[in-house]
Write a structure and sequence with these properties.
Layout: H1 34-39, H2 41-52, E1 55-60, E2 63-68, H3 71-80, E3 85-87, H4 89-94, H5 108-118, H6 124-127, H7 131-141, E4 150-152, H8 153-170, H9 176-192, H10 198-201, H11 211-235, H12 257-267, H13 276-306, H14 309-319, H15 335-347, E5 354-358, E6 362-364, E7 367-369, E8 374-377, H16 379-382, H17 405-408, H18 435-452, E9 453-456, E10 463-465, E11 469-471, E12 476-481
Parallel strand pairs: 2-8
Antiparallel strand pairs: 1-2, 3-5, 4-12, 5-8, 6-7, 9-12, 10-11
Helix pairs in contact: 7-8, 7-18, 8-13, 9-11, 11-13, 13-15, 13-18, 14-15, 14-18
């Protein structure tokens, strides 16, 4: 590993002359490490991060990526020195225009306006109003299960989380046609932006009408149209008629998230208001990113529990203390449920990497990084770094419980675990705006499942580096009624 006392480490005020190390290249010089990566993308970066240090430069198809894996450097990029970095432009370019006006990809003033208007909708007291949707959607999605069924957890949890978001955003029940549109869009986007494909590493011209591009464009258009229809159904004349939005939430008995967004947009200064396209892209971002990531966290949690009978016993014992179906008021009494969710996202972070680029030359880990370089901050690697995690490959929810000193310690020989050894929702000003919503939803959905069901007989899971950390094959378990 790299020496953390190397010259230039720390605040980045010095300019070290040492460039980051890179894996050896064997083969065609122009391709760099591309062929090595394509042979085994899941372990390629992890292996070199472990062998070469905390800042490693990888060349893929003529491009250059700097993997940054020390928590102190990650915290600096995301938090303490964040003004010197921005969202990597390559992320938006790879998306071929998908969600470019949404908060996930927007930068600068456009991002600030969207974040300011959306933030009040995600305050704790407002998010907690939607907890009941997680319980209802989970119960309804599992109503047809029978003891001994073999189920696809991914299909079930995606249905649950999309149902929750449609209810919370639009106060509607999930329509089957709308659900199919979102599911197809999610699948097509993941296939199109598969990080293991040469198309993503070496983007083709945006105008080239490949079959994959045509499928992507069709799914994206269907997705946008579906959200536009929901907006029109709410506002009649649409979002452009700002006067149609409620001037005050006092006039609404039980506002949903769209009510909150429209009201905030109405109250903003005219130059700060979101256009219809911006509002739509932010709603699509909430739907796509929100349901996909939380569903993955729940699916991986189910898979891990199916192979951990002791953890399943402890989870069942905790939810059995409840007097009825779980509610938001019960969450303080469900610490182990929360620990299971956190440990699942440590082992299998749904959003497995972040991308940034420095606005000026910087020093990270004592290495010189030029302006405009693509920085890769990989949760998937950092969350299982043996320097910070004792038995990192083991599923141990106990490590998140304050009263379990044996399991909460960091790796042997490490007194303290750095804060950014775990960052499933990112960090700093651009941390995931829906983090509180996602955690509330995941805990209530998992507790609802655990009250009636136990998972057994997990299949083998191998993650795939798509837009999110998708399993290569469906996550299947056997469900047993308790």
């Amino acid at each position: 590993m790299a020496d953390r006392s190397a010259p230039g480490d720390g605040d980045g005020t010095t300019d070290p002359t040492t460039a980051p190390p890179a894996p050896e290249v064997d083969g065609l010089p122009l391709l760099g490490n591309t062929h090595q990566y394509l042979r085994d993308p899941l372990t390629f970066h992890e292996r070199h991060a472990r062998d070469l240090g905390d800042v490693v430069r990888v060349r893929l198809a003529g491009g250059s990526f700097h993997y940054v894996t020390h928590p102190d450097d990650i915290q600096r990029v995301l938090v303490s020195d964040q003004s010197r970095f921005r969202k990597a432009s390559q992320v938006a370019e790879a998306g071929s225009g998908f969600l470019t006006d949404g908060m996930f990809l927007a930068t600068g003033e456009q991002w600030r306006r969207a974040r300011t208007i959306a933030q009040p909708a995600f305050y704790r007291e407002r998010v907690e109003r939607y907890g009941r949707h997680a319980v209802d959607a989970t119960r309804e999605a599992t109503a047809g299960w029978s003891d001994g069924d073999r189920v696809d957890l991914g299909a079930v949890t995606k249905r649950v989380t999309l149902d929750v978001l449609v209810r919370a955003l639009f106060d509607r029940d999930l329509d089957d046609a709308f659900g199919r549109t979102v599911a197809e869009a999610a699948r097509t986007v993941n296939d199109f932006l598969d990080a293991t494909s040469l198309r993503t590493i070496l983007p083709l011209p945006d105008w080239l009408p490949t079959p994959a591009k045509r499928r992507f464009e069709a799914a994206r258009a269907d997705f946008d149209d579906a959200v536009d229809d929901l907006l029109d159904a709410r506002g009649g004349s649409g979002v452009d008629a700002v006067a149609d939005a409620p001037a005050s939430l006092d006039a609404i008995d039980d506002p949903d998230l769209l009510d909150l967004l429209l009201a905030a947009n109405r109250a903003a200064d005219e130059e700060d208001r979101l256009s219809r396209a911006e509002l739509r892209d932010n709603l699509v971002t909430f739907l796509f990113a929100g349901h996909e990531t939380t569903a993955l966290a729940l699916s991986y949690a189910g898979h891990l529990l199916a192979d951990a009978p002791d953890a399943s016993d402890r989870l069942a014992a905790e939810v059995d203390t409840l007097s009825g179906e779980p509610t938001v008021a019960d969450l303080p009494d469900l610490p182990y449920t929360e620990a299971v969710v956190k440990e699942s996202m440590r082992r299998y972070p749904p959003l497995y990497t972040l991308f940034r680029e420095p606005l000026e030359p910087v020093a990270l880990g004592g290495r010189r990084v030029p302006a405009g370089a693509t920085l890769v901050l990989p949760q998937r690697i950092v969350h299982t770094d043996p320097r910070w995690w004792d038995r990192p490959e083991a599923f141990r929810p106990e490590r998140w419980l304050d009263d379990d000193a044996e399991h909460t310690r960091a790796a042997p020989g490490t007194e303290d675990r750095p804060e950014y050894a775990y960052f499933p929702f990112g960090g700093g000003p651009r941390h995931c705006i829906g983090a509180r919503f996602a955690m509330l939803e995941a805990r209530l959905a998992l507790a609802t499942l655990a009250r009636e069901w136990r998972f057994t007989d997990p299949g083998e899971v191998r993650p795939s580096l798509n837009v999110t950390l998708q399993p290569s094959d469906p996550i299947r378990v056997t469900v047993r009624r308790r």
